[in-house]
Design goal:
Shape: flat
Helix content: 40-55%
Largest sheet: 4 strands, parallel
Mean pLDDT: 82
Low-confidence stretches: 175-186
Number of strands: 4
Order of helices and strands: HHHHEHEHEEHHH
Radius of gyration: 21 Å
Structural class: alpha/beta
Length: 221
């Protein structure tokens, strides 16, 4: 699913002329037979070279830096799919974007230096952001995690627009992990209750899973 977020991968699938080629590409995405799978993207390099040359003049301009946090109630699929979608969109637009995935596996934590250097912050979350105070004072945009998957470019554009707007939304210094910051567009009580419930579910999932395993072991023995 994460490989399908990559345009190069989906383009290779569309161009495949046989079932064997598709199997080879999928195996490459899964880490099986990586050497064979890497041969095809290398062929596309010469075609991409002219475009890279055209973009060289813009390279002298300072690159916008963005940090993002993605999180969903289960902390499994959408958390990482949103992170990948935002990364690929930023690469395509020529921005430097780093993501913190507040999920159930393979968490990536942003350093305070990265946060301080960022021009804007993106919260693609359906639960409350942990340690939100780290982003105090930063321009931000916040939407449900699904929008991070479906509209990553739009979220990046909105975050940078907030950064350029002197009266744009800023992460409040007093906001705790369980509060929405001042100026948030989704600070209504309904949204706050929803996030509080989803956050509670997110923390309870490991206990539910462990309980199910213990019940299964009880039946075995």
């Amino acid at each position: 699913a994460r490989s399908l977020m990559k345009k190069s991968f989906t383009a290779s699938l569309r161009e495949a002329s046989s079932a064997e080629e598709i199997v080879e590409l999928v195996n490459g995405a899964l880490g099986v037979g990586e050497k064979k799978a890497e041969a095809k993207p290398a062929e596309a390099a010469p075609a991409a070279a002219p475009d890279a040359e055209k973009e060289t003049p813009a390279a002298s301009a300072p690159v916008k830096k963005i940090v993002a946090v993605t999180a969903c109630p289960t902390g499994i699929a959408h958390t990482y799919m949103a992170a990948d979608a935002l990364k690929y969109a930023a690469e395509e637009l020529g921005y430097d974007l780093k993501v913190e995935t507040q999920g159930s596996s393979g968490n990536e934590t942003l350093s305070q230096a990265d946060i301080d250097a960022a021009d804007a912050v993106i919260f693609a979350v359906s639960v409350n952001v942990r340690e939100r105070n780290r982003f105090a004072g930063k321009p931000f945009v916040e939407s449900p995690v699904k929008r991070g998957i479906d509209e990553p470019k739009e979220m990046i554009a909105e975050a940078l627009a907030e950064a350029e707007n002197p009266n744009g939304a800023r992460v409040a210094a007093t906001a705790s992990s369980g509060e929405d910051s001042a100026g948030a567009t989704d600070g209504a009580w309904g949204s706050r209750i929803y996030k509080a419930v989803m956050t509670g579910i997110s923390y309870m999932i490991p206990f539910v899973a462990a309980g199910g395993i213990l019940v299964a072991l009880g039946f075995v023995f």
